[in-house]
Design goal:
Blueprint (H helix, E strand, L loop, with lengths): L1 H16 L12 E3 L4 E3 L6 H6 L1 H20 L4 E3 L4 E3 L22 H9 L9 E4 L4 E4 L3 H10 L15 H27 L17 H13 L38 H16 L7 H17 L34 E3 L6 E3 L3
Antiparallel strand pairs: 1-2, 3-4, 5-6, 7-8
Family: Belongs to the RRS1 family.
Protein name: Ribosome biogenesis regulatory protein
Organism: Nicrophorus vespilloides
Length: 350
């Protein structure tokens, strides 16, 4: 009996956690099950909103969702893959979209041709069996290229081809042209889908070119020089291309600086003013100490003299010939003087 009472008590506590599925309303809600919409037309309780706003709105939302789920489970159900599924009826309410309806993607030239001829895309295998190599080769990727190099280690020269022509280089160039053609076609499809006019790039096919294509090719060739066609000779009665005359050779387009916010500009200016006003002179202690020591050494080595020698004149050496003084009355930089009579070098007098 104690065990039964404990189970009943536990069941009662669990039942208190979950609210009942039956909700009573003064007025029935308006439902649109196809749009999963329920409209509550009952009046709100102003007292509960003022006292416990969040709890009141939370409970009200829970009750309305419970009523909507009850309406959904009244529809016929079916089981699909261990799941119970309800088929919703058609919607009655037209809900507004936050974004416009996306437009249909324009078909490329190949897609329109395939649709017209009824060609359907089939899933191809990623690998295929090669009888010559006796192994599975992928349709794309680096392993396919390695298999092709191993397979085409020798290429037969066609009968009408030059025997000295490099067939490997010719095959490589053909592959580069195919890749470039596919890339050009892809870019042209993108431009066509976005209604972008493709710029003229000279004559694409000389056999199918007309007079306009030739004029465009001449203009492109002239403007591709360093002088932008300024010094190129022109044909008689040839009109100057539009926009070429306004181009200055060597001119570069200046990039506009981005607009600086006012607060950032103000802070930068204040930082510059503070750095100027609060600038203190820097004292180089090592340099000042070396200057002071140098002056002290000069004062120690100097001898006091009462008479000052006149500028431009020298005294005579004892027992020697007179020494020529330099121009301007200055001492020679090397500290040596030249003897006037013999040309020997004499030491400077201290």
């Amino acid at each position: 009996m104690d065990v039964v009472a404990e189970i009943l008590e536990r069941t009662a506590k669990d039942a208190e956690k979950f609210k009942p599925i039956h909700v009573k309303k003064h007025l029935e809600l308006e439902y649109d099950v196809g749009s999963l919409l329920a409209v509550d037309i009952n009046d709100l309780d102003a007292k509960l909103i003022n006292k416990e706003k969040n709890d009141y709105i939370k409970n009200l939302t829970r009750d309305n969702i419970q009523l909507l789920i009850n309406q959904i489970w009244q529809l016929p159900t079916e089981r699909v893959d261990d799941a119970v599924v309800v088929k919703l009826p058609n919607a009655k309410t037209l809900l507004p979209r936050s974004l416009p309806v996306p437009k249909e993607k324009t078909l490329t030239k190949w897609e329109s041709f395939a649709k017209e001829k009824g060609i359907r895309k089939s899933n191809k295998a990623k690998v295929h069996w090669d009888e010559e190599l006796k192994e599975w080769i992928p349709e794309y990727g680096y392993k396919r290229a390695a298999a092709e190099r191993e397979k085409d280690w020798v290429i037969e020269v066609p009968g009408n081809a030059d025997p000295y022509e490099d067939q490997f280089a010719k095959k490589k160039q053909a592959k580069v042209e195919r890749v470039a053609k596919n890339e050009f076609q892809r870019l042209r499809n993108i431009a066509k889908a976005k209604n972008i006019k493709i710029p003229k790039m000279g004559v694409v096919n000389p056999d199918m070119a007309n007079s306009k294509d030739l004029v465009t090719a001449i203009t492109v060739a002239k403007s591709s020089t360093a002088s932008v066609g300024k010094f190129q000779s022109s044909l008689p009665k040839e009109k100057e291309a539009r926009g070429v005359a306004d181009i200055t050779p060597g001119a570069k387009r200046k990039r506009k600086m981005p607009v600086v916010p006012s607060m950032q500009e103000r802070s930068e200016n204040l930082a510059i003013i503070d750095s100027v006003l609060n600038k203190k002179p820097k004292l180089d202690v090592t340099k000042a100490l070396s200057k002071h020591l140098y002056k002290e050494q000069e004062m120690l080595h100097e001898e006091p003299s009462s008479k000052k020698p006149r500028a431009g004149k020298r005294g005579k050496k004892k027992g020697g010939n007179p020494v020529a003084a330099p121009k301007g009355g200055k001492k020679p930089k090397s500290g040596k003087g030249v003897h006037k009579a013999s040309g020997n070098v004499g030491r400077k007098r201290r």
